[in-house]
Protein 1
Amino acid sequence: MTIQISPRFSRNADIVLYEGDCLELLKTLPNNFVSLIVTSPPYNLGKEYEKKSDLTNYIKKQVSVIEQCARVLKENGSICWQVGNFVDNCEVIPLDIILYPIFHKLKLQLRNRIIWHFGHGLHASKRFSGRYETILWFTKNSNYLFKLDPVRVPQKYPNKKHFKGPKRGTLSGNPLGKNPGDVWIIPNVKANHVEKTSHPCQFPVELIERLVLSMTNEGDWVLDPYIGTGSTAIAALIHNRKSVGAEIMPDYVKIAKHRLKQADQGTLRIRPLERMVYDPIGSAENIPPKVVGLNGKLQPRLFEERGKYKKRGG
Ligand SMILES: C[S@@+](CC[C@H](N)C(=O)[O-])C[C@H]1O[C@@H](n2cnc3c(N)ncnc32)[C@H](O)[C@@H]1O
């Protein structure tokens, strides 16, 4: 391995992967240290890694973690809290609505409530099937780091020109692409996804890449207090950022280490950000999964040529 993975906090590490409770790790981090915190906390659904508790207890635990996160966040940094719904007796309770007051009380300012839309999940029979979750993006103040250019997406009409006035004949849209907006259509990691591990709810790496590229600079630290299979660390490292995170389940720590090792060796496969969402009609014209490596060896690029590829057996 060329990258340094440390089991406890060290400024010299490339990655800090703490096996244990995130509060223990958080307490060892300095004030104003990380540039971006991105995480998906347990949803209190009774998954194998969490004990379902009453909502008040759940919120109390989240308060302690979020308070520590606010402490370790740099003044120009960002917190992105990705959540879905808590379901109690078939009643849906949106966690972002429940958690928002915690951030507000800490004087964190909401910049976007990003809707992450995906196509797969449980099929409901007594309500519409849930097909989105949200990312609450907060900053400490209005002087925050945000870069649009690295995450622009292709314009709908790239060659559209001004048809009158002094700019007549020149491109009317930014040639680098448009703002991706606050509704992100990104496949979730289910059975056939190239990044799928045994974890029931991993982040797609591309979801985190967009946050890392727009909210941090190279060399910055990215924290995920509930790091699971290490998706946040992968997104940070393939873009030359450093990563710190905690995971309470030893099996997921093992998977995270394995994925990081694959990335280090240049054999980790991820779904590229620029790959279109599956379209049964135009499925042959798409961008295949890509292999990525760390330290600039095989950096993914957002504006690669769309390639034609044949599906296996096709
Ligand atoms: C929603 S999952 C996050 C998955 C992660 N985003 C990924 O891409 O793999 C939440 C994770 O938090 C872990 N977890 C739960 N309580 C924890 C705690 N107190 N400290 C650290 N990790 C915890 C769970 O084991 C689970 O892997």
Protein 2
Amino acid sequence: MTRRILMPALLTLAVCTLAVATHAQDREGTGTVQSPRGGPVPDLSGVDSSGFILTEFQRIVRGFQIAPVPLNLQNKDLALVGLGSYIVNAEGGCNDCHTNPPFAAGGDPHMGQPKRINAERYLAGGTPFGPVISRNLTPYGQGGKPANYTFDEFRRVLRTGVDLKNLEPHVPSADHDLLQVMPWPVFQNQVDRDIRAIYEYLRAIPVREGFPE
Ligand code: HEC
């Protein structure tokens, strides 16, 4: 029974992955990827890619398993939502900085308690880092836009660190305002598809009031 669902799902995914891979050939959008040293890529033609496609599928499944909030999957690309959840909740550490506090009362793993994410404030921002405050990433904008950004704006922020909301502090200057705590110098290295996945996942999480608002 599981096989009958899994195999067609895997096949569809394999086809999709190939389609995306051929399509994506570097339409990485605005901004520069820092330090593309252009190191040599070994000949990968002998690599059995089926294992990697399975890994991608496992990441999607795991993404759904670890999402700490109910997801609105209407009009969403399911594979991207699952993958985005994986990137946000298993790799990106977004919750640590964008949820205040990150864990529910009695659910802080750093205190040896059984882990429970603070679902009520999930990714709503408001965590102070000195004068810098983390932002609301939930889809609070018109039409459910994460951080109230279109995809193109969102990608630009992750790739370049530009503060499109122009909030204090203005570093290095008012007209060249860059995010100061957000690890965009790391996230800018992601392939387009991963940024799309993050965005699609954030479209699916519950709206919360947060910072700024
Ligand atoms: C080390 C803490 C930290 C982590 C980890 C982090 N962020 Fe941020 N992020 C911030 C802070 C703080 C700001 C806003 C202020 C600044 O950095 O100047 C911000 C800003 C942003 C913005 C700009 C929002 C706006 O309204 O302009 C986006 C988008 C964003 N983060 C997405 C993410 C995503 C997605 C992840 C996980 C993949 C993530 N962040 C992980 C701290 C973090």
